[in-house]
Structures are given as structure tokens and as C-alpha cells.
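FIELD: query
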Amino acid sequence: MLKSHILFDNTKTSKKIKNFLDHKIKNISLSKCNLIIVIGGDGFMLSALKKYNKYKKPFYGINAGSYGFLMNKFSSKNTIKNLSKAKSVTTSVPKTWPSQIVPSAKVTETSSTFSTT
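FIELD: result
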């Protein structure tokens, strides 16, 4: 069973996507999840990867920014299905990133798991 933890930035678009997922997904803690969902832009994803890489969990990015090179497109019809069908991609995160690579971003957290309803 897929269990997820949601991280989202403080933008209007991210909050709308998070609210949509809240109606589809139950809550679970970061320590018990098997997937971290990141809602925001590429900079927010990089910030989340840096901060939460220590948990050794896979990340799934949903774009709420402008370009979304690192993120998946949000679709109210397909996002839940896409989460379960997502393929794993391995990346390497350096122990120390130059500060100019990862912009400072406030991380707002909530946690979740998929509902069977």
C-alpha cells in the first residue's frame, strides 16, 4: 500500500493541489511513509530533496511553479493514478550544495496515505 507524506510551498496553486489531495488521501507521519509528495516549483523540490534526503524515501514532485522541469504535471483526473504508476528514478544529492543552487523556501508539511474509498 502506498503511504505518502505531503510537502508544499506557500503559493496559492500549491495550496489548491494540497487541498485536492487532502480529499483523496489519509494522513500518515513522515517516519512511516514510503513516498514524499512535493508540491511546488523546481526550487522547492531541490530544497525538499536537500532537507529530507536523510529519510531515504522516494520523492514525487507535482508542479505548482512556472516551468516544472523536475516536477510532474498536476491533473485532477490522473494524479492519484499517476502516483501508483510512477517509476523510480535515482539521483545523487551532494552532501554540501552551494547555497546559490537551492533557494531558501519555507517548507510547510502535512502527511498522508492513500484512501481506499
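FIELD: remark
DSSP finds three helices and five strands in the chain.
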